[in-house]
Amino acid sequence: MTPKLAIIIWAISLIAWVAIRVPHQNRARKTRVASNAKTLGDRLALAAATIGLSVIPIIFVATGFPAFASYPFQPWLGWIGLFVEAAFLCLFYASHRQLGKNWSVTLEIRQEHRLVTDGLYRYVRHPMYLSFWLWAIAQACLLPNAIAGMAGLAGVAVLYFSRVPNEEAMMRAAFGASYDDYAKHTGRILPKPWSPIR
Ligand code: SAH
Q1: What is the CATH topology of the domain spanning 3-9+42-105+115-184?
Q2: Most CB contacts within 10 A, which of 8, 40, 149, 160?
């Protein structure tokens, strides 16, 4: 693994992320919203994730800035980055597919919203956010720069910790006891194998 190859893997993954996301974004525009829990805080958290996972690493890859934070590339980290990036894309693709029309970029309940509890959602409540953690880990492995590498983890941490409690409160308000029961048998990003959904 060379530094150049690591950057190509990082860039292809970013493009693949866009290619997976765009059709869902287009469909979401046509799916009616029943209620939303969007807040300024949530928009800022989304912006933090975007800056950490794309703006800062794109600037680094294009210009080498901030050069003072760069360190020698470690090929073994690059290989780990490749595998984590592949796991990210598989999880991201599958969670988007399984959420289907119920997906929103922000916190929204659709008019015909269905609580998804199968596929990946049978095991964890936030497989898409888990995929974002993997994306951020891959970025840290592939980009040999302390700031550009870690920016993704910082951005995902802001989004994850600020959004998840609000998202779960919104889902609980919409689905009541069914969501409580679902939450009892699933973990947020790690499965609860001792308490599976019957
Ligand atoms: N947190 C989930 C979904 C992220 S997309 C994940 O990480 O996979 C965010 C939107 O998905 C929210 O606005 C909510 O409306 C919807 N959502 C989250 N969990 C859901 C579920 N189990 N079933 C249906 N919709 C869900």
Answers
A1: Four Helix Bundle (Hemerythrin (Met), subunit A) (1.20.120)
A2: 149
Q: Report the chain (198 residues): mean pLDDT per 10 consecutive residues.
A: 97 98 96 91 97 98 98 98 98 98 96 96 97 98 98 98 97 97 96 78
- Output the residue whose Cα is nearest ligand 1's atom 16: 103
Q: Which residues line ligand 1 (CB under 6 A)?
A: 95, 99, 102-104, 107-109, 115-116, 121, 126-129, 167, 171
Tokens representing residue 22 in the block: 């765009």
- Residue 115 Cα to ligand 1 midpoint, Å, equals 8
127: tokens are 């497989």
| Domain definitions of the chain by residue range | 3-9+42-105+115-184
**Which residue owns the Cα nearest ligand 1 atom 11?**
103
Q: Which atom of ligand 1 is nearest to the CA of 129?
A: 7
Count Cβ atoms below 10 Å from residue 163 Cβ, excluding itself: 22
**pTM summary value:** 0.97
- Contact criterion met (CB below 8 Å) for 89 and 64: no
Among protein residues, the one with the nearest Cα to ligand 1's atom 4 is 128
